[in-house]
């Protein structure tokens, strides 16, 4: 605060020197109205005194501690000098009474509002005294015009009014100016703080972050980015991302940054690729998007990336372990599944070899052996279907018709002691493109599961619905439902809750549907029923009627 006052005081001293030189100097040089002057020499003295004061002030300002008092002294000194000038140049008839206004204004600028009122008060008293002394002839100031008593008092009144008015106005304005200045400075500090803050944030976030401008050149590259890539700031700023790694070229292509900002409208994407860090390959996963300014105009692109090397290595490790675990599980199941029929086959053959069986029993044993061989064959066929699916064919067929065929098949396979009603909502023809045989297998598996789920009595509803470019096929039953724990396992191969189940039905169905680009979903409530939904895409030239 004091520094501000000192700065303004210095300005005051300088302006005063200038003023003395120009105004009084010109008066002295041109000698205007000199003949009228009371003591012409006095002007020269005044000039000398003021210069001397200026020098004194300039020297004192470096020493003084009481800066406010110092300022008051200067302002008072100025007023006294002003009064002296007015006295010398004719009192009431002087042209120089405005000089007092300048002192009042400088008081408000250098100090504050209160100082300007003080200056106005001092000016009023001294000016009032001077004019009064002139009027009562205490000071012998000649009056050239004819002025009445009223003129004198009106002159004093007008001056005092002007002094206070100017004190008020300039005080008000300088106060306002000061407040605005303070606020601006605060804002400036806020802004600087904010800039520093966002820079700190950018540097401190643990992910690599970079930005590039519309020319596709890197503009920001934070600490984590440098650590992950092993690059230095000077090695990347101003370069293109693909100079760091070729795969990063995609950002520029995606963002269409090639000098044409109008096309700059691809908002975001993800990339994964390798970069070389000190001869070692590291995997980087990056998300990027358009960088826009506060008005939403694109000004470049921003990317955030992580080092995924360890993660990907761990994933590969886990995948390898999972694969071996699955193979182990599979082998155990196959061994178990094959052993039972082989055991009964072996038993039957042993008995036949010993030749101790009656011929009609011999026939029976042969039947058993044959059916066990069928079972072996079925398991292997199913398993191969799951393990090595054929790529689906691309026939166009009526989906509704194939579901009707499935229902006929289900009716015939359904065991006689159950009371099951099958409802169908299959309206018109619904042509899709796909592998008829494989999809039939899917529908049959879902249908048989639904029948299996119903204990004595229940309903199955089969329906299709076309929604834009997909068809939804739904199998709903009122059977036992699926418990929460089982829910996540039903699509695993060999998971079954049935005595004679293989646990391959749903796995095969899922595989086939996925090969067709579709998906299977399931909703179930234990005790009240289950709905399986198969969603298939309708490929472009799969024509659809009805
Ligand atoms: P499987 O029929 O040989 O058991 P799946 O893969 O077809 O093998 O089915 C796996 C398991 O999913 C079944 O054992 C059964 O527990 C459950 N499941 C499948 N469909 C249904 C259904 N509609 N209602 C209740 N449970 C079902
Ligand atoms: Mg099944």
- Ligands bound, unique: adenosine-5'-diphosphate, magnesium ion
Structural class: alpha+beta
Mean pLDDT: 85
**Rg, Cα atoms, Å:** 51 Å
First and last CA, distance: 87 Å
The largest pleated sheet is described as: 5 strands, antiparallel
- The amount of helix comes to 55-70%
The neighbouring-strand order within the major sheet is: 2-1-5-4-3
Per DSSP E runs of 2 or more residues, the count of β-strands stands at: 12
Strand content: 15-25%
Number of H- or I-type helical stretches: 15
Describe the secondary-structure layout.
Blueprint: H1 2-30, H2 40-63, H3 67-88, H4 98-110, H5 113-135, H6 149-204, E1 208-213, E2 218-221, H7 223-229, H8 233-236, H9 249-255, E3 268-277, E4 280-292, E5 298-307, H10 309-354, H11 359-387, E6 395-398, H12 399-413, E7 419-425, E8 431-434, H13 436-453, E9 457-467, E10 470-477, H14 484-487, H15 505-515, E11 519-525, E12 529-537
Parallel strand pairs: 7-9
Antiparallel strand pairs: 1-2, 1-5, 3-4, 4-5, 6-8, 9-10, 10-12, 11-12
Helix pairs in contact: 1-2, 2-3, 3-4, 3-5, 4-5, 4-6, 5-6, 10-11, 12-13, 13-15
Adenosine-5'-diphosphate binds next to helix 13 and helix 15.
